[in-house]
Amino acid sequence: MLLVVFATAQAGGVSDPTPSAILDRADAVKGTDFATFSRLVDQMAPHEADLAPIERSRLHFLQGWRATWQGDYDAGRRWLSDVVDHSTGDVLRLRAMATLINLLGNSHHYEEAFTRLTQLQELMRSVRDRYALFAARSEASQLLSSVGQFEQAEAYAKDMMENPPAGQTICFGAQHLLRARREANRLVSIDPLFERALQVCESTGYQVFAENMRADIAAFHLAQGRPAEAVKVLAAHRETMRRLDYPVLLSEFDATLAKAYLSLGDLANARRFAQSAVAGAIPNEFTDSRRVGYEVLYQIERKLGNASAALVFHEKYMAADKAYLDDVSARSLAFKMVDQQVVARKAQVDALSRQNEILRLTGALDRKEVETGRLYIVVLIASLAAIIWLVLRLRRSQLRFMKLARRDGLTGICNREHFVEQAERVLAYGARSDRAACLILFDLDHFKNVNDTFGHAVGDEVLKRAVEVSRRALHACDVFGRLGGEEFAVLLPDCSPAQARARAEQLRLSIAAAAGPHGKPAPSVTASFGVASTVPCGFELHRLLVVADAALYRAKRAGRNCVFMGDTGDIPDSPYLSEARG
Asked: Where are the transmembrane segments (predicted)?
């Protein structure tokens, strides 16, 4: 059955037509000749059942690597997890785990990514294959850099540059070192080392790493206020980047180009590359290039005076920006939780070792009846008690992190996810007991002007002040949460529409009358309110949010600083039905 694929493999540059040789060839060219690599993988796939187990695992690894490259994360995760969990070869498991970590980081499954990173670091101790270790250090460096562990990330990158396996160069390590230093804000100039590494990448056929370095160099120039230099670095290589068929990096390229052209006042090119960055972003996944693309499109429409289009793009930008902040928070929290779990497991292992030592000494006491042995037992029991105390303390720390994950970091009230969970629970109870409930949505008016005029620190104080005065006007049973930015929601259980309107009016007056902390001067703010009731809308949270959102939008259009009641007839007027406000 493999005769056909063996024959066609000759056309792909494989002189030895055996499964192992074909897989070797595909593996060797995957980073330099993606078309040939993909063709060889496709030729082998129909004959998977005829392969030996280790060759089948190698094919799954290559299929997972290709899916990760192309941004098909669901398929890539299936292939790579199969190799990691079932392959008998530690070297192949280490390579698959490294690629899986890359995939999990890109698809924002951070807790699993850091759990796999811990497994990868343990597996690295037993593997001697320099190529596999090279790949493992590469992914460890990237993931650690993404959570601010820059010293470890740089250490892995430098090790890659100092100890490359046969056939490898400084190209990979230099690219990771450049990104780690740029993200750590420790890059003050483009070291000649990076220019030399870029040339090495191109001369050895690793074009994607060369373009990655160019993306970082351009981002550095842009951050330093040199947009023309950023365009010079990227524009000449944009077509090369497109031919690489690497959509994630191409979208990053285009986002940086869009910002650079916007800084130069070239709105036509800024629009073109911003639209390309948004279109090329991975569907249904947060990507920073989508956030930057929407921001540039908003700025363009604002400069051109297109208020309606600017508002649409501003809403999309704010949603993407919130996703960015949530992503940073989730990544950091996942790292801390996994780190705590590793420490807790180590403490548990130490406790078991201590227990075994206690049993051994107890036996020695029975045999020798040595009084000094009793003293050792006391010491070991004390040590065990200390370790148990440490484990309990670590457990409390884990619970604290879980609590933090449900609270908004700035205001201390429910975050969006926890508010939805609590609100749905209250509504379900109201539906069973036939008790009406009401939802209030409110949004601080002209809050962007506060940030632009007084700075984000004052804006944060305004948000906290609004939450503080709102809390004083709410009941203990009310569910209060921050949906994102300057938008808040309150669910009032056992409440009629008239009562809800009065409560909303009370909140509006409280916010408008609130003074700065300790009498200090601060910008005054008002809020607009939209109210929805279960009486016309039913007990489905999504329905209440849509109706309240439409009422809030009417309040904004009516001049702000007012309260509007929503009903089912409002729904077609709401612009948020076509926008994912969350």
From this structure: 375-394
Residue 407 forms beta bridges with which residues?
414
Spell out where 18-110 has E strands.
Answer: none
Kindly state whether residues 365 and 453 are assigned to the same domain: no
In a domain, 376, yes or no: yes
Residue 491 lies inside a defined structural domain of this protein: yes
pLDDT at 166: 83
Q: Please provide the DSSP assignment of 359-387 as one string.
A: HHHHHHHHHH--HHHHHHHHHHHHHHHHH
Q: How far is CA 180 from CA 89, 151, 216, in A?
A: 31, 9, 10
Q: Which amino acid is at 401?
A: F
Q: What single letter denotes the amino acid at residue 373?
A: G
CATH number at residue 529: 3.30.70.270
Residue 11's pLDDT is 41
What pLDDT score does 580 carry? 32
What CATH number has the domain bearing residue 274? 1.25.40.10
Instruction: Please check whether residues 544 and 490 belong to one and the same domain.
Output: yes
State the number of CA atoms in the 13 A half-sphere of 158 facing the CB.
7
SS3 of 188, please? coil
Model pLDDT, residue 9: 42
149 located within any domain? no
Structural domain including 293 reads: 206-305
The pLDDT value given to residue 511 = 93
If asked whether residues 555 and 429 sit together in one domain, one would say yes
Q: What's the pLDDT at 540?
A: 95
Alpha-carbon distance values, 395 to 51, 119, 398 (Å)? 47, 21, 5
Same domain, 428 and 375: no
Our count of domains for the chain comes to: 3
Is the Cβ–Cβ distance between 541 and 525 less than 8 Å? no
Residues 498 and 555 in one domain: yes
Whether residues 376 and 496 share a domain: the answer is no
162, two tokens: 């100092």
In this structure, are 438 and 559 located in the same domain? yes
Domain boundary residue among 380, 405, 430?
Answer: 405
Return the pLDDT at 581: 35
The backbone torsions φ and ψ at residue 446, rounded to the nearest 5 degrees and listed phi first, read 55, 35
* End residue of a domain, out of 383, 405, 427: 405
Whether 116 maps to a domain, the answer reads no
Residues 392 and 444 grouped into a single domain: no
How far is Cα 95 from Cα 79, in angstroms, rounded to an integer?
Answer: 13
Can you give the length of the chain in residues? 582
Could you tell me which residues are beta bridge partners of residue 533? 438
Q: What single DSSP character describes residue 127? A: -
- Which residue type occupies 155? A
- What integer pLDDT is reported at residue 403 of this predicted model? 57
Residue 405 confidence (pLDDT) = 64
Got the DSSP string for 544-580? HHHHHHHHHHHHHHTTSS-EEE--GGGGGG-GGGSS-
Angle between helices 73-86 and 90-106 (to 10 degrees): 150
| Residues in the chain with pLDDT values less than 50 | 1-11, 572-582
Measured CA distances, 486 to 108, 188, 272, 443, 453 (Å): 25, 36, 31, 6, 16
Q: Is 83 exposed, middle or buried (0-12, 13-18, 19+ CB in 10 A)?
A: buried
Q: What is the pLDDT of residue 14?
A: 55
